[in-house]
């Protein structure tokens, strides 16, 4: 999956917002994709990787099966996994994991967010 395909896919999910929350030069290229103000994906378009929210049960299996997975950069490694884009991880698996991450965050949003999803 290339950079633009990833961005388009994330923004195709209902009510997703793209943010660049950092002003420090070394982090200014990083993008977050959020639902209800909560992250489900951190994206580095320059280094071509993403960190996605996941379940602790899935992460060890993914790390053992594919070279394109790695412990998530600067994230809770129990609940996040890193993925190198354009690696041995298929586009369909990346999309599946992004949908899962989106749904994990969406289901944990407070009821008062009233996102009408």
Structural features, described:
With 117 residues, the chain is α+β, with helices and mostly antiparallel strands. The protein contains three helices and six strands. It has helices spanning 3-12, 59-65, 91-107; strands spanning 17-19, 31-35, 38-44, 49-53, 69-71, 80-84. The chain has a six-stranded antiparallel beta sheet, covered by helices on one side. The two termini are 27 Å apart. The relative contact order is 0.19.
Notable traits:
alpha+beta; 6 strands
**What low-confidence regions span 5 or more consecutive residues with pLDDT below 50?**
none
Number of separate strands: 6
Radius of gyration: 14 Å
Gap between N and C termini, in Å?
A: 27 Å
* Broad structural category: alpha+beta
The coarse silhouette is: globular
Strand order in space, largest sheet: 1-2-3-4-6-5
Strand content: 15-25%
Report the major sheet.
6 strands, antiparallel
Into which percent range does the helicity of residues fall?
25-40%
* Count of DSSP H/I helices: 3
| Order of helix and strand elements from N to C terminus | HEEEEHEEH
Mean pLDDT: 92
């Amino acid at each position: 999956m290339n950079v633009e395909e990833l961005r388009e896919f994330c923004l195709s999910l209902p009510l997703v917002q793209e943010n660049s929350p950092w002003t420090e030069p070394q982090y200014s290229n990083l993008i977050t994709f959020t639902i209800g103000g909560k992250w489900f994906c951190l994206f580095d378009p320059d280094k071509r990787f993403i960190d996605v929210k996941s379940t602790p049960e899935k992460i060890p299996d993914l790390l053992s099966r594919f070279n394109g997975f790695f412990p998530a950069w600067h994230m809770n490694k129990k609940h996040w996994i890193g993925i190198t884009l354009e690696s041995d991880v298929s586009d369909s698996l990346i999309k599946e994991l992004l949908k899962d991450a989106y749904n994990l965050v969406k289901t944990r949003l407070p009821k008062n967010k009233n996102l009408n999803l």
